[in-house]
Hints:
Number of strands: 17
Shape: elongated
CATH class of the largest domain: Alpha Beta
CATH topology of the largest domain: Rossmann fold
Strand content: 15-25%
Number of helices: 19
Helix content: 40-55%
CATH superfamily of the largest domain: HUPs
Mean pLDDT: 92
Structural class: alpha/beta
Amino acid sequence: MKNFYVTTSLPYVNAAPHVGFAMEAIEADALARFQKQRGRDVRLQTGTDEHGLKIQKTAEENSTTPEKLTDENSKKFQSLKEALDFDFDDFIRTSDQKRHFPAAQKLWRKLVAAGKLEKRKYKAKYCSGCEEFKIDKDLVEGKCANHPDRELDEVEEENYFFRLSDYSEQIQELLESRKVEILPHFRAKEFLNVVKDGLHDVSFSRSSDKLKWGIPVPDDDSQTMYVWCDALTNYISALDFENEGEEYQKWWVNAEKVHVIGKDIVRFHAGIWLGMLLAAEIPLPDKIYIHGFITSEGEKMSKSRGNVADPFEIAKEWGSDALRFYLLSEIPNGQDGDFSQARFEEVYNSHLANGLGNLVSRVITMGIKIENNFRYQAANIGREEKAEKLWERIERVMAEYDFRKSVSFIQNFVDMNNEFISAAKPWEKEGEEQQALVGYLLENLRQIALALKPFLPKTSEKIAAALGVSIDGDFEELKKWGAVSEFKLTKPEILFPKKS
């Protein structure tokens, strides 16, 4: 079974983390946990993109240095580890001169050796919000589609260009054949239309007179690397690409590699990054999973509008698993979705407090009343086919990284158990019949805890602890119906206190 390497994009550190990146982090984390649960050797990596004119200007405006500004903001992204149970294995900063600079400069030299970087004079329209040059067909009424409130700058200078246009046909073939697979597949169709029109050469550096905060271009002190060879290289710089050592061999050469990114940077990853790797003769990623944007109460999130949802505050008030549940279950796979406080509270109370939390409390309370250290033979209970179907469904949709359907299948299983209790009324039964009914429900709780482990890790562990069972170990054995025949029940804490 191949090693599994999953990465997030690198958020830019000119602002604190918002709920949009929180969703990306949670998706990447759930994917990593899902693969790890199935016995794979997994690495999850994230980090921060810290160079560029915006950082340089923001530091100047606030009478500080880019180093101090990026140190402060990078720590906020690192703290998502505790706030969201975002269990990353490595955090790479593009300002890391020990690990990142040498790798980016090595890749630059490979592109030079391949004859794919050349110096040109040019004049173009530049969006400071995207930190990207725009061509006319990218514009809507003369403005950047992503930053319509900003005026485009007319820039005229000399710098290095990467000959991405040389790779249009090769990238098209890679995407059409799914040698590099874009998920969901409708996103691949969108980008293939762009590729078929022909990819354009990309500006790869800036004058060091204008951009001082960045990685120096090797052998040309008049230039500073622009974001492409800088930020995109993070996926291999943290793996000791400089020396192509053991980590690079394990996680890039001999692993399944997945990038989790937002829809606004597809061209950078499925176009520029693939072109860079092809030119440098470096192995390609296997999959690129693309999520949409999150709006707030139906409007685009914006600091100026004051409608940015703070993931730290939400997780602090409601719990990290409540936020994870909402983002994984409510946002359509690969599409835009809305974060509404009213909807969040509705989902929390109906699905978590009244649904999952109530089920756990009811079943374990019944078990304790019958007999603590509850014993039963699951094989005699039957009805295990419903749990087996749950696993079949989860495996099928997670093959396409459909987190929403996965969580909805688990939620449906929870609802089915609550409905079963109402219909079977185990509290009215006696003796072996009652034992069998409650034993069946306890086994279903164990199955739910196991299924929730990648998605709601804290809740999963709390359920397992209340059952007195372990959900760590050989997954194929653990998911078998009746793999555990003894529960040591303890009264669980209230998993999701109902809130009005």
